[in-house]
Structures are given as C-alpha cells and as structure tokens.
Amino acid sequence: MNEHHTTPLELLAPAGNADIGIVAVDHGADAVYIGAPRFSARANAASSMDGIRRLIDHAHLFNARVYMALNTLLNDTEIKDALAIIREAHDAGIDGLIFQDMGLLELDLPPVPLIASTQTHNATAEKVKFLEDLGVSRVILARELSLNEIRDIRRKTTVELESFVHGALCVSYSGQCYMSQAAFGRSGNRGVCAQPCRLPSTLLDGKGKKVIADRHLLSLKDLNLVDHLGDLAEAGITSFKIEGRYKDAAYVKNVTAAYRKALDRIIDSGDLYRRQSSGRVAFTFEPDLDRTFNRGYTRYFLTSPDMPGHQAAMDSPKSMGAAIGTVLQTGKDSFRLSGGPVHNGDGLCFVGSNGTLKGFRADRVENGRIFPNDMTGISTGLRLFRNRDHEFLKQLDRKTADRRIAVTMVFHQTVSDIRLTVTDEDGHSVTACQPVVFEESRNPEKMKAQIHAQLSSTGTTCFHMTDLKIETPSPGFLSLGLLNGLRREALTELTRQRKETHVPKEPGKAADPAPVCPEITLDYRANVLNRFARAFYKKHGAEDVADAFETGPARPGDVLMTTRYCIRRELGACLKQRDSRLKLTPPLTLVQGKRSYGLRFDCDLCRMHVVVE
Question: pTM for this structure?
Fold first, then answer.
C-alpha cells in the first residue's frame, strides 16, 4: 500500500485529565482532546498545564496528537489570560487549539492549528467554507448532520472535517442553547451548563391540557455510530470523536477500544485509509458499548431520522444500560430472572409504573435467585436492565491494553565492539555501540540464540521487535548484562528521538482577500461577548452585531434553543405525517417546575424552537 495515496483516519478520544488521556492513547486513540486550565466548555474538566505537558510527552511517543479545548465565550477581562494560556500550551507542544470565541482570531496567536469547535455552529457548507477561509485547519461539524449534508460540505470545502461518533447529545444545536443561562444564570457557552434539558418536563397543549407529565422530554439518548464509520469516512470525515470529558477511565477504555477495533477493520479491509498514529494495541478484554454508561443509543439524523420514540431517553437522563431479562418469580426478599447472568454488585433498573427509572443493587446472587437491596416495585413480568456491570468494571480496573510500536533490529560484532541498530515502523533509526574485546565463544550457535533472546526482550517499553538480524556468523562470548545494556541504550535513544522529532501540523492559511461573513446582520446567537469578537465580525462584513445573550435578561420571544429533534415527531404527532397517531392542539408549552417555555415548529425545515414566553 502506498501511504502517500491513502487518507489518514483519526480516532479522537476524550481526556478529562492527563491520566485518562494517557489511558486513551494506550487503548488506541490517535489523538485526545483535553480542557485548558481555564475557559473550557466543560469547566469541571479543566487540566493543569503540567498535566497537559505530561500527556503530550506520552502521546507524541506514539505520534498521537493532543488538542487543547479553550472553547468558551470570553469577556474583555479574560482575553489576556486566555492568550497567555494559548501561548504556554503552544510552547508545551499542543497539536491544535479548539476554540469558540471569534475574538481570539483578532489576537497575536502563536502558530498553532486552529480547530473550530462544534460550539461555533458548523451546520452548513457556507459556514464551514467561511471558517476554512479564515485559516482554520479543522472544523468540528454539528452533530445533527446527515451523511448527505456532510458530503455536500466536503464537496464545497477542503478543510479537515471532524465528527462526533459516540456519547452524549446536546438537544440544541451546539453554541445556540441559552436555556441554562435563562433559567439558572449558568451559560453553556461559558462552560457551566446546568443541563435543563435533562430535567423532567410536562407538555401542555393549547387548551392547557397535560399531554404528557413529568417526563424527560428534551433528554436525548446517546449517540452511537460505531457501525457507520465507513459511511462517515466515505462522506469526508477524517477525525472520529468520542464525547466524554466527564467520563471515567473505565468508560474511556471500553469505548476507545471498541472504536479502535471498528476503525482498524475499515483500514485493514482495503487500501484507501491508514492509521493516523503509530503502534498496534493488544487488548486483554472484549470491548462492549452496552456495558458502560449509556442512556440507550441513537444514530440521530445520520442516515435518516430514527423512528418516532427512538431519539429521546424520556424515562431518565441516567444510564439505563442493556436489557438483561424479565422477572419470572418474586419472593419476600428475592426474585428469579429469565436471562442474565447477574453478579453480586450489579446495578439493575426498570421503568416504574409512573414512567420513571428506578434502580437497585444486586446484593447477593445464590442458586439463580437475586437478593436486591430493595424489592420495591419488583414484580413478575417486569423487564430489567443492567446499568452497572460489576464483573466488567472489575476487568476494566486492571491493565487492559498494551500498545507497541514495531521495530526491526540488526546486530553486528567486530573485534572491538558490538552494535545494535533499531529502526521503528515510522523510519526512525538509532545505533547503540559498546566497546568489547572479541572473545571466542565455545558454542557460537548457542550464543546467537542468547543474543536473539536478550535483544528481542523489549519488556515494558513501547516497542515490539518484529525482526532481528544477527550479521555476525560466529559471534564471540557476550554477557547477558552487556546485551541487555546495549538493548536499553538503543531503545532509550529511539524513545528520545521519537518524542523530539514529532512533527507539528502547519497552521492553516487565511484567504486573501479576507472572507465575508455568511450573514451580515447578527443577533445574540453570534455569541459576541467581547470587543475583539465585535471587531472580528465588523472586519468581515457584518453591519449589525448584537451583544451575546449572556449580557442581559431573557425577553419574551427569545429563542433559547433550536433543535432538529422534535417533540411532536418523537411522540408520533408530526404535522407532516398524515398518519400521525397523536393529534395535539397548538400552541404547545413545556413546563419545568415554575418555568414554562413555548414550543414553535418550523415544519418546512424540520426544526423546533424553545422560546421565552
């Protein structure tokens, strides 16, 4: 295969901190993204610069990349600190900066590749082309896009395209949600979203009648596109992103391993693609996406909208897990289950009679009977799900992956020294030399076997020997310590060379003349919170630029959320489908506690708007 004519595919994993980022790399990630010390869209997943440096040091050994997320809106007093963080991160060796605030593009940034966050609302070819012409190196696409929409963007642009493939879904177009700010004074665009979309809601029709009460009507299932990676690659995606900077190491291990295997099957099946980073991973467990946190899965709008009733997790915003069986028989303090197996410590759950999720723990399992910590609500015929797999988590708590870079070795002995040349799969080559006076061996063949055994034993290093040539037909006597020292010297030098010769990506180049904004009149959804962002849009042709939503109180009629997900369609009440099973009298209102929101429907575009009443 000629690698110059293949497309590199990147598996991009989350790093809630440096340790989890290292776990992701060890389990096959080609790149990881980690929060900046401040100004990350996941404020509680900020990382220290020392941690980022440690992660970079490990990742670059495998030619993997580290992207830093500094993707919140900034006010005027924060710009200086943000710039200082970016410069320090560039000096540390980050491979890209994920950003949202356009004001950053007006600053004297170091030459780091820029990655437009999905928070910049990248849903059209026109927007992506504008970002490309600004000099952005990569665009993270909106999660709502279909394959045909992605193909259209690819035809009209050349910038790198990144797509989410797994994890939690924001119900609103990212960067365009103001519900948390309006309800709680906590801005999602500032990294402190209160997640009102995960709260229970009641839907009222135009007559004030309750259509559905106390359900999680805006809470979506998790995205799972593991079976569509080939489709995405064909459409033009080269970076496949796993969501989850709030997830623990066990989750990152399992999901990264599952997607590594899936992506490798695509790469190994033909000559179109290649791996973005170096090394192969051997896993000690079989990844299973159903056995770690999930709210149920959806492919969202990728190929066609999921069927009504299949996009939202209305019973609970918590993990439901996979169906495990049905209750066959109940007793005073235990029950029997069809299916399983269930283990001590498993977390099980079911949907109660009121439509809410109720969980319990399997304290003890004996002779097919399950003794839970709480029998309330458990009855014959009840369908159970497992949302905490104790045995699987025990597996993931151990060492579960070994990532190794292939090397070949050539050994040579002269009358005065021994030499070992080691060449890795990327072409890096080092030679270690030790002065040794030749001393004839009593058994040269046995000595050759000993040389082979000692030099090929790469131990706990990141290398795996695939071929060793001993060029000396009759080597002299050499001690085990001498051979081990020669191998250690060579591999230590190769490790140093790999880290020091990591080639950073060149930043993108801005078009000349400067591009013009796709829209020249910008309301609060342009997210302008500082004077630099205002100057940016003015420079690029905007004539009327409103202040960000965060600068003032919500007003009646303000759109708090725009979503492709539609409550009408999910409930089977779509106005475009004549056979809709449910008829709703407009206008519809969504109630959360003492707060109420209007629902407006643009059926021509299949969009729903949540507005201030």
Answer: 0.95
